[in-house]
Amino acid sequence: MIIYLLSFLKGSVMMIETGTMLNNRYEILQKIGEGGSAIVYKAKCHILNRFVAVKVLKDEFSSDTEFVEKFKREAYAVASFSDNNIVNVYDIGTEGNVNYIIQEFVDGKTLKQIINENGKLDYKDAVSKCRQIASALVCAHRNNIIHRDIKPHNILVTKEGVLKVADFGIAKATDSVTITSTEKVMGSAHYLSPEQAKGIYVDARTDIYSLGIVLYEMLTGKVPFNGETPVTVALKHIQEPPVQPIEVNPEVPMALNNIVLKAIAKEPFKRYQTAKEFMEALDNFTNNFSTQKTFMQDEFTRVMDPIDETTLFRTNGIKDIKGAVKPKKAEIENFEDEADEELDNVKDRTKNKNSLTKGKKTAIGIILVLIVIAAIGTVAYIVGIGGPSKIGSSEKNVTVPSIVGMQQADASKILQSYNLHLVVAATKNSDKPKGTIIDSYPTVGSAVSSGSDVRVDISAGQNQPTVPPVQGDDLNSAKQAIIAAGFTVGKITQQSSDSVPNGCVISDDPSDGSAADANTAITLVVSTGPQTTTVPDVKNNSETDAVNALNRLGLSPTITTIQTQDNTLNNKVKQQDPAAGNNVKPGSVVTITVYQYVDNSVSVPSVMGKTQSDAQASLQAQGFIMSVSQTTIPATSQAQSNTVASQDKNGTQQKGSTITVTMYGQYTPPSNNNTTTNNNNTTTTNNNNNNTNNTTNNTTQK
Predict the structure, then answer these.
(1) Cα 242 to Cα 226: distance, rounded to the nearest angstrom
(2) Which of 91, 149, 439, 512 is the catalytic position?
(3) Sign of torsion, CA 395 396 397 402?
(4) Residue 473 designated active-site
């Protein structure tokens, strides 16, 4: 049997082979994937007896201390929350120079594999999958985690059809690496947002853009931007408009086409502002389409039921019909044929009953035609031809009316009548008269919640100077650019920001690219950097005191444990990460490692009189380590030869303790030369005795 070991060479990669054991717990079974920053293996957890996925950071990133720290920190953050559409993180560890994450093992395929197999997905299936991904992003963004690498390769699909987003944390850690590097792109350039491609700071809306690209690919089977190099693709994200999905796949409904285009808008403020808003747009689309189908089915069902005389000519029904869109002649003829057929059915059911007069039957035929016409008008009403939609959505949803081409004051009044609010997003040069609405976001016909803002671009007329782009610039550079463009620097205020560096411009008013009169004062909001909290020193505190101290400062403690055999350390904090004194954002995760006392004491077996091998086996069986003293004691008998003479510990000891034994040496019996001498001495003595006896006898005879 081949035994695979973790082999370490100075400055080299830890070799991960089949059979490798991590942390004496996770057995590597096979490699199942590889990404830009990590290799993924299938493994078995021998403690919980389940399969897991082990994500091992590649060697080139393991040497980047800052990258590794962020890798661990973000992994801990993701492990602190759970969602059905997010791959769970079970454990984070380091062994030698190997950094790894233990994750949920998903038995299935990646979304990329499914797209490649099918070419393109049915739009209903694509919407359902996109909604699951959006749900995962809602959870992540709520916990202040931005994925930054949403793409089909990072979406796992179980055999039951559940989508799970993977690679949280690794993507977040790319802050410390230039994301536009053509040699080390962290994620595919095909899914990067324009702000990522520019290398500027991003927020949650970058995930929305990437998800929009994924939805585009599911609907069409291809990405909107392609090129020979990552740089080429990145430039297209920034500069080129996408080919509309409906032009690639005519089966894509227009409403869904508009949802995709909004999600992948170049400017973040033109996109859905939150993942929840994106998810609600998908829900509205699904509900509207299902409602249209149900509505038509319901109308035909009503035709088949007996009609009460009192319901034939209700004034509100006539009023609704007057507001409907007039159908084409061919449509009327088709529906009249259907109405006649339905009328025949009614006649069959009422034959021989004489319950309806000829006039009533005629009235039934007329009302059937009117109902069908009303149905057509209502369907048109739903998809945005009529006024605010009341069918297929909740009462709080309204449809954005057409305001493009109106003057700002008139457009504002129209929006107010729909309980919507006009917000000027930008003022731009245009051949339209000054003050004319030239674009709106959301677009005309979009379903939005009542009370929502509608952002608009307003014409400044022709040849108006435009505000230079200063957002993200340091204050001095921004001032110089504003003055050079013919404007003046107005009021400057300061504000903390998680995304804009200290001393740089967060926003300007009028905003970048807006047209304004010469010498207009441009007000600036400048970043003071992230709002931070200093991490307190909680080492050696009790777990309860440490958690309370962190909570008081708005930090999020997570706890890991380490076993100890010293009862005095029980529930005390051994270490913390980040260390005391670091400045972090409010809500940041601080991991504390707490001692957990474990009583591992067992009785030390007596090994005196045993051979060295038997003594070692006996002690190891109880969890002890045996050490042999270099000093030996002479054996006085063969039975003592090479056996244990003494041991330094008895009674109860902790597992893992070292028991030192002293051995008897090899027994040596007396030598043969001594025995011969003794025999000779005895013989001599006997001879002497004989001589004495002979002498005595001779004397007596005389």
Answers:
(1) 11
(2) 149
(3) positive
(4) no
